[in-house]
Amino acid sequence: MTTIAELREQVRGPVVEPSDDGYDEHRRVHNGIHDRRPALVVRATSTADAVATVNYAREAGLDLAVRGGGHSGPGFGTCDGGVVLDLSLINNVFVDRVKKTAHTGGGATWGDLNHAAHAYGLATTGGIISTTGVTGLTLGGGIGYLARGCGLSCDNLVSAEVVAADGRIHVANEHDNDELLWALRGGGGNFGVVTSLEFALHDVDTIYGGPMLYEVADAPAVMRAYDEYIQDAPEQLGAFFGWQLAPPLPFIPEDRHGDMFCAMVTCWSGRPEQGEQALKPFRDVAEVKAEFVGPMPYPALNAAFDGLFPKGLRQYWKADFVRDLPDEAIAAHVEHGSKAPTSSSGMHMYPINGAVHRVGTSETAFGHRDAKYAMVILAGYPDAADDEDNRQWVRGYYDAVHPYSGTEGGYINFMDTDDAARAPENFGPTYDRLRQVKATYDPDNLFHLNQNVPPAR
Ligand SMILES: Cc1cc2nc3c(=O)[nH]c(=O)nc-3n(C[C@H](O)[C@H](O)[C@H](O)COP(=O)(O)OP(=O)(O)OC[C@H]3O[C@@H](n4cnc5c(N)ncnc54)[C@H](O)[C@@H]3O)c2cc1C
Q: Which of 71, 236, 250, 404 is positioned for an S-S bond with 270, CB 3.0–4.6 A?
């Protein structure tokens, strides 16, 4: 099968070529920096479509970009001249309330999964934005509000269906293809097309939390108090520290719109009536100048910041895992973070202790279990003319704080195009084993548009 006409006969979903309506919409990904023009976009509706597309790309010798939610910073979900396999139409979610599991299609978003699971008062660890893809986020590890209590998203991955490079379909679980399951838990999109995933769910329904904004002058004290409290805080507490140029939202006084704040975004997933007490250390440290904190459905918090990250926003990222926050690091954060250029830019410090630390380093492919935080510095802005200024701000910030991180690696899902060479450090102690698994399922590196792990020879 080497012609597009033959491929069209093999798939049920739409095949979009440059001359077709909708090509411009379907070639684009979330990060507006990537203006690539694939030869075709296959909008798969089943595993069978994925098999046909993998076989076609391999036999035609074309690049293959696999897209779930399309949120990859380096734009791995699209390519120039190759084939895009877009799974977004396979976004079904089935919840088994007895087993407390969710079966999701390979193109589901966190909004899809949270919506379906919330009807049963259940959830699992996902990202902080509802439009991010479940699959891409989980394959890289998966960090979010629930991680301290429920582990990473990949720790909750029970099984997956994968189309490997030779077009064969594998089911990976603890009994079959267990080495593949190990690799999918943090090894990225290297091993094939994941067409469905099964997750363990937890009793998370109404949470207590939301954003709290403080004056920049209080940032050193807030960051120090955050670092000390999150060390041993109850594990139902998720909270990340960041910077926020105030957007025009009703909970922020109008005369402070456009001002810079430091922020804490909180999510207490224990009993809601205990939430106030759980957040008390964050109130005691300094005056909260604006907040939107209270009981809310977990999916509401998951979607609360979607508006700050619309599709098409130009983005540039740099990231590290962080072990400690010495005073010198906090001073560097305050100096650079307080100059974040837009409301969609900043630094987020996500805690990955608690339940994440109880999983052994070699148990999954996510190798940095000894870090306390996953830190990301992100610039998000609309105008191409500002590319260089925003890159410079991110790089200057990163260079100032990197010496204190205590690690050379960063979270693969927060890496941008120019950090591809960091892959061995980013995967860390699991890199060599990942190369062995890659050699089994993708010996010729068909799946190379990702945080790539070359196959062992
Ligand atoms: C606004 C925003 C917020 C974010 N917040 C968080 C967060 O809170 N926590 C966090 O951990 N990360 C977060 N991320 C990072 C996110 O985890 C990565 O960008 C991730 O790759 C997105 O997955 P996706 O499916 O949306 O992306 P895509 O661009 O579709 O895919 C990214 C990678 O995953 C692979 N992939 C995707 N789907 C499949 C599939 N079905 N089969 C095989 N491979 C697949 C692709 O090949 C590619 O390598 C965020 C990103 C953005 C842009």
A: 236
Instruction: Say if domain 4-86 classifies as CATH 1.10.645.10.
Output: no
Say yes or no: CB of residue 135 within 6 Å of ligand 1. yes
Residue closest via CA to ligand 1's atom 40 equals 194
Q: What is the pLDDT of residues 198-223, one digit of tens each?
A: 999 999 999 999 999 999 999 999 99
- Cα–Cα–Cα angle for 200, 204, 206, rounded to 5 degrees: 160
Q: How confident is the model over 232-260, as pLDDT tens digits?
A: 999 999 999 999 999 999 999 999 999 99
3-class DSSP state of 456: coil
Q: In this structure, are residues 188 and 423 in contact, taking their beta carbons and an 8 Å threshold?
A: no
Is 71 a pocket residue for ligand 1 (Cβ < 6 Å)?
A: yes
Q: Of all atoms in ligand 1, which is nearest to the CA of residue 30?
A: 53
Q: For the chain, what are the domain ranges?
A: 4-86, 93-203, 206-420
Domain 206-420: CATH architecture, name and number where available? 3-Layer(aba) Sandwich (3.40)
pLDDT tens-place string over residues 395-424: 999 999 999 999 999 999 999 999 999 999
CB of 106 sitting under 6 A from ligand 1? yes
Q: What pLDDT is recorded for position 365? A: 98
Q: Write the CB contacts of 217 (distance below 8 Å, at least 6 apart in sequence).
A: none
Nearest ligand 1 atom to the CA of 142 is 11
Ligand 1 atom with minimal separation from the 413 CA: 18
